[in-house]
């Protein structure tokens, strides 16, 4: 592999492999990822606020993709991360789509929308 190809590969690896959080609520102080409960499809049993949609890039396997989503949810202070979709390709690489939730009462009548 020549040097240019190596640099392009490293750039793509660094910039294209970030787990993202698209905020739909506000962020809270970060928590320990071990305190974020992982659910599949079901919503938390507490009153909750939706914080963000979380998406992971294609990762080595499903366990790593779920862990990345959990860590991203912890960064924004979530109590739960609900895995909505798992995509696994032919090479067993996986990505997940999830929603992060924080337990607590939310007055949905007073939600402000900034334009």
Automatic annotation (TrEMBL):
Keywords: Signal. It comes from the Bacteria. Residues 1-20 form the signal peptide. This is Heavy-metal-binding protein. It comes from Desulfobotulus alkaliphilus.
């Amino acid at each position: 592999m020549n040097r240019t190809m190596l640099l392009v590969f490293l750039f793509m690896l660094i910039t294209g492999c970030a787990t993202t959080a698209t905020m739909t609520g506000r962020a809270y102080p970060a928590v320990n990822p071990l305190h974020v409960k992982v659910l599949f499809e079901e919503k938390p049993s507490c009153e909750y606020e939706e914080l963000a949609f979380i998406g992971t890039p294609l990762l080595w396997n499903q366990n790593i993709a779920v862990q990345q989503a959990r860590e991203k949810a912890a960064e924004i202070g979530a109590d739960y991360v609900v895995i909505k979709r798992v995509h696994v390709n032919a090479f067993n690489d996986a990505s997940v789509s999830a929603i992060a939730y924080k337990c607590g009462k939310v007055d949905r009548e007073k939600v402000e929308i900034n334009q």
